[in-house]
Amino acid sequence: MIWRNLIGMALFLLGCLVLTIIGLRWYTHHGQSLILPNYVGEKLVEARENAERASFELRIIDSTFVVGKEGGIILDQNPKAGSKVKQKRKIYLTVSKSQADEIPFRRLPILYGKSYARKQKELEQGYQIKSKVIGRKYDAGAPDHILEVIYRGRTIVDEKQRKEDVMIEKGGTLEMILSKSSGGSLTMPDLTCKMYTEVAFHLQTLNLMMGENHQDDTVEDQNEAYVWKQVPSAGARVYTGDTVQVFLTQVRPADCIDL
User: Fold this and answer.
1) How much is the pTM?
2) Measured distance CA(14)–CA(4) in Å, rounded
3) What does the alpha-carbon distance between residue 258 and residue 83 come to, in Å, rounded to a whole number?
């Protein structure tokens, strides 16, 4: 009887020991750390399938539009890939949107009359908006400056207007017409009775070229000489880039009228 009791107690203690070992192994395995995969760059649908197999839960906390990227792509995750985490850990994601964000035109910089090269870079880097030159027309100002802005077939900027409430998509394209210094026509001004230096400056502002000047025997200082004749004559139709000839004399002509 005693031996039977001793054997029973030994078997009981052995069973308890086995169950304890099994329990410890299960508890250790259940709470062990796992290495978190990298979900960035994956499609959300595929990442969720992989996460479920690893007992992770994916949750979207933010979404943003990225030019050139389709919607539903994982852009960021927290915790980061490679982190040690437990099973059933929640992984927080930022994903890409398929619908482009829109920017009110009033938030964009002033474009009319500004250098195209400078504004093209500013729009691309600061707002993710592209620009495209679709034409040029004559303007008395500097060349390659913005005269008109067109969006989806509608003129939203010119010398008379700026439509502030138009919504511009990120990744969208603004079409622009730029200035050029040639091709415009104008009426030839009267240059007679003016000093050479004044005439040279005036022609420059009109985008006309100073051609050969003809001096009579009285001219000693060209800059202070007077124009007594010009070609083309005053009132003629000329074009920007045309050349103008002037005839100079040192003494102001007697038939000049004081204004």
Assistant:
1) 0.53
2) 15
3) 89
